[in-house]
Amino acid sequence: MKKLLLLSFLSIAAVAPSFGQQVVNYVGPGIPDTCYASSKVVRTRVLPPAAFLANRPSATKATIIVTYKDFTPEAQAAFQYAVDIWQSLLVSSVPIRINATWEPLGTGVLGQAGPSSLYTINGGGERISNALYPTALVEKLVGGDINRNAPDINASFSSTFNWYLGTDGNTPAGQYDLVSVVLHELGHGLGFLTSKDYDATSKQGSLSTPPSIYADFMKTGAGLSVADTRIFANPSVELGTAFTTNDLYFDSPLTRAANNGERARLYAPTTYAAGSSLSHLDENTYGPGDPNSLMSPQFASGEAIHSPGPIVLGMFSDMGWFNTAVRNQIFYSDTETPSTFPVTVRVDSDGTITPGSVKLNYSFNDGATTTVTMTPTGSVNEYTATIPNPGLNVRVSYYVEASDNETRRIYTAPGRNAFSTVSNRYSFFVGPDVVAPTLTHTPPTYLFASSLPYTITAQATDNIGVASVTLEYNVNGTARPSITMTRGTGNNANTYTAVLSTAAGPITAGDVINYRLVAQDNSSNTNRTTLPATGFFAVPVVEVRPAADMYANEFERTTPIDFVGLGFSIATPAGFANGAIHSTHPYANNADYTYQLLVPIRVKADPQIARVRFDEIVLVEPGETGSVFPNEDFYDYVVVEGSLNGTTWTPLAPGYDARDNANWLDLYNRSKSGSNSAAVGTPSLYASRTISLLDKYKAGDVVQLRFHLHADGAAYGWGWAIDNLHIQDNTVTPTAQALQGAGVSLFPNPTAGQFTVQTRFDKPVANLEVVVRNAVGQEVLRQSQAAVKGPVSLPLDLTKYANGFYLVSLTADGETATRKVMLNK
């Protein structure tokens, strides 16, 4: 199974509902790890921890809530027994929620589980900032729920295996112990995961960006941190070698303490094992019967292990499951007023706080650091100290530290960066403010007239504070009254919204809304930021047009607008002689690009007519061999979709990728650089595709169509190009000698009035005549051109005529070819 790598931050941020300034950023979904059955038969038994056996069921330090789906009562009892073991060992004030499903899985798969999401934390009690943390661990560190009671771990277990469902560990040969497998899989969901990938062709290894908290402790036999990009480029062959030398370790203080001073050997076989390598302890070092064998990659029949073991618990403690969180109450912003600055913190420890260890460290203008022992305030675990008045024009930096009696580790707020022994610092400036607000906003590419009123959303922050954010706009160049944007509250305090509506005047299809955002701060200098920095965002207003019986477009013109969407445009990139629909080249990871045709199609009954035909180039990441659309291992894909309501979209045919054409796949693979491909499309790669409308829709249905490119978070390529689009186009093919092979096209078709007739003559033609007739045969337009050779483009205008079908006839040297055009104003 492909692993998560090179993640991108999404625009979702949350402040955990607890004491302090914890900033939690959602990075992406978690990827489950898979547990496979071994063909070995062993009879080993490792008992649960003694404290669990002595105190069950009351000895719980954490609450784990499981939502069971389709489990038998016996299987649920075994699952719950494993849950009880974990909640007797973990410490968390926030309930851990698990979705567990009992269902058929793949061949040899016992179970799979992983965190629902991955996050980074800054200033929230974490030891290492900007590492990837699983949901349950994030909630433990920040002391609050961050996903509104949604599942923290998703797990599924095979309903078809020969399970031993008892809880005594006396597992017979030939059966697999469910308690052990559940303990193992929940370990992955709690944080025993690497977020990595390996390309067997290029031998390159990759880690997610940023790396997981687990990967931050991974070292080679020589003691080199594989997540340190100063040592290992990411991705790189060197990293791939480190992944496959059978010489990789988890190295942390508490792990060594639990392992007689030694590092924990990880599973890193010389042949990379997707789904197993790196995210497990070494199978040979910690085999069946070893007290530390729970997190090895395979389970044998007859094997029972009901304890994570001291090594895994040490690893978990160093990742944060044993923690002393320093939560900062006052996080200062820049100020223009000199004063003293009291700093108050709460220190929440899973152990006991070392007396005198809570200290405030501060400096002025990056000078010498002053350390002050903080004093208790009288509230539980709360301490305070004061930064003296620094005067004007001074940069103040500070951090707070504390330690516990159990680990003797120093914890700081904010946390330190990985591979650094120096703490990060909070910082603020005292003096006249010259810093303009930070303003971010993603403008819409287009707006449907039916979507009005439409809410414009922006994010604005400032070191002093934001005074206002204003939306200034005009419609077709005519100014409308400015709108003061409304600030959100609570977790959305940096979010500003304004509603674009028709209250100040009509806005209809064909209009263009031009707007900009202006943020002003609270300083005496009234600093301002304008977005965009110059000019305006221009957003066309569009609408779905009346249905047509056919559509054809050669994409030689970019107007009028027949398509709307994100990530596509009608363009002629370098190396191409003609226009076509092109995705962004290369496309981005974690993206869904769509390009919607604004002309719905009324489906014909004739299967020879009810078809979508186009030429295309598809250079997108291929999925696993044998993968089936739309499974997770299909990875990136392109697909043509239809909709009856403009909201629910259905594939007209299964999606596909570069594997659909041998030339595409060969070029994609030959041009790989790391996990990505540098292949560039050329016209010689075009291949034709025909898709039936009647496979999904019936005659008479009015269907909206769109092109859709989906990209996951791992690898990318050049993308998709689409040309010569013909939908239910049954126009006459030219047979006259002068037009033979010349090709006659009309675009756009349907048309709002203005369209072009295009052809080409390799030999001179004495006279070319174009005649347009309406549906009853009446001539409405005639145009002639003498002495023609080479390419010909004839612009025509039917704007003043009524909607309907028209026949366009081209006559050259007495020979005629006819095309049909739909006028749809």
TrEMBL record:
UniProt keyword terms in alphabetical order: Signal
Classification via InterPro entries: MetalloPept_cat_dom_sf (IPR024079), Secre_tail (IPR026444)
Residue ranges the record marks as coiled coil: none
Domain Secretion system C-terminal sorting residues, every copy: 746-822
Signal peptide: 1-20
Name of this protein: T9SS type A sorting domain-containing protein
Native source species: Hymenobacter citatus
Lineage: Bacteria, Pseudomonadati, Bacteroidota, Cytophagia, Cytophagales
